[in-house]
Structure formats: structure tokens, C-alpha cells
Amino acid sequence: MGPHGTFDTAGNVKEWTWNASGDHRWLLGGAWNDDPYMASLSYLGRDLREELKGSVEIWSVDFRTAEAVSDDVFQIYRRQMTYVPSPLDAAVEGEEIATEYWRREHVSIKVGHSDARMSVYLLLPTSMPPPYQTLVFFPGMGSFVTPGQTSSELIPGGQLDILEGILRSGRAIAWPVWNGSYERWDDFLFRSGDDRLRMWRGRMTEWAAEMGQTIDYLSGRDDVIAEDLAYFGVSFGASVALPLLSLERRFQGPF
Q1: What is the rounded CA–CA span in Å between residue 240 and residue 244?
Q2: What pairing do the DSSP bridges indicate for beta strands 15-21 and 117-125?
Q3: Does residue 244 contact residue 204 with C-beta atoms inside 8 Å?
Q4: What stretch(es) of the chain map to CATH 3.40.50.1820?
Q5: Which of 113, 133, 82, 111 is nearest to 246 (CA)?
Q6: Residue 32 and residue 182: Cα distance in Å, rounded?
Q7: Mean pLDDT of 19-36
Q8: Fold of 79-253
Q9: How far apart are CA 55 and CA 51, in angstroms?
């Protein structure tokens, strides 16, 4: 479904843009067989100021040689996003899906940054007995750009076949419905300018709290090895990982 409530309006071709980058041109849009975010992210229409049609240079940084900020500066940033534990008020919503290799348990907890609740789906392997090594999962951008999706769609398959491979290895996956995704959708990815920056700062703090609450919940389960947790992000979930992992020290590995 598109951002205006329409269905099946993704085209079969991408579109060239006015903007060049060296000897190349940029493409926008996506076909029916591309990732959903390719056809969902908005872009400007035809009435553009001439300066917006100019060349766009690719900005890149080699983070292997980038100089880190001082510990004092880092702590200032860290304090702004510090996770403060709060009551979880966990509730089991149901065990809805089971296959030969895994079963799915649906729980809900308080998010920690407001009075709202967040669904957390536990994908638990059936190939070995508990307790399990567990990965906290952060999905790609397709989970955040399309309104109308529901978290009942959170099952391995399609683009997420890799999750079934992890489950068949005997590890569990915890999939929180992060703020901005699925039934918690909002338009934060479509904002621009200073409004976008403000929204992003707040969203990173919210995700840090949701991650902390999820880990607190997992740590209280008998079927999870609390001291052997890992983070697993795909695409968008991998790009947002650095600030989140710098705040949360309870992971043993990034996966």
C-alpha cells in the first residue's frame, strides 16, 4: 500500500533524475519486485528550482581512519540517550504460529519512554531445548516506510529467509516492533530539514529505551541465556546500530 492509501501503484521501471554524479545519473523509484522502500520513499515533483537539478557528489568517509571524539565528548552524547529502566508490565498476548523449526510467541511490554506498549515477538527454535542464545533483531527500511502493515506479518520467509537459518541453528530471535514500524508507523522518514533532524534525535533515544526494555524482559526469561545476547540488524537496522550498540553494553557480539 502506498502512503496515500492506494494499492499496486509501484511501476515496473525506475526513473532517471535531473541530478548527475560525475559521469553517472541517479535513479529513484522501484519496480514491483524491488524492496518495498524503493517505491515508498517520497521525492520532489516536477516544479523544481533550477539549483535543485544540479550535480550531487557522493560524500563518503573512511571510518577506519576517522578520528574519534574524546571520551569526555562521547559521555556528553551518551548521557543524552542513557537508558533508564522502568516497569515492564509484561503480558503474554499469545503463541500464534508454529512450524517444523520454530514457534512464535507474542508478548507486549511498556516502551519506557511513554505510556505506550510495544509488541515483542519471540521466535523460538524447536530443534533444541532451552535456554537459547538470543539475537535482538532490527529489520530493514521496508518495515518503516509503508503505513498499514501489521506486526502479524513478522515471520521468516521471503527476504527474511536468513532468520529461519538462524532459528534452525538453535538460536532464538527477539523482534521488537520498534517505534515507527508496522502498526507504530509514523512519517518520520518523510520529514525534511530541521524537523527531520529533531525527529531523528528523538527516535534514536526512543529506540535505545525500547532496546533496553527488550533486554530487561529477555533477562527475566528462563529460556534465554541473558549473558549471551547479540544484536542482528539488516540493511537499515545495520546502519542505525552504531549509536545503539555504543549505548547498550549487554550484547556479547553484533552478529
Answers
A1: 7
A2: unpaired
A3: yes
A4: 79-253
A5: 82
A6: 20
A7: 78
A8: Rossmann fold (3.40.50)
A9: 9
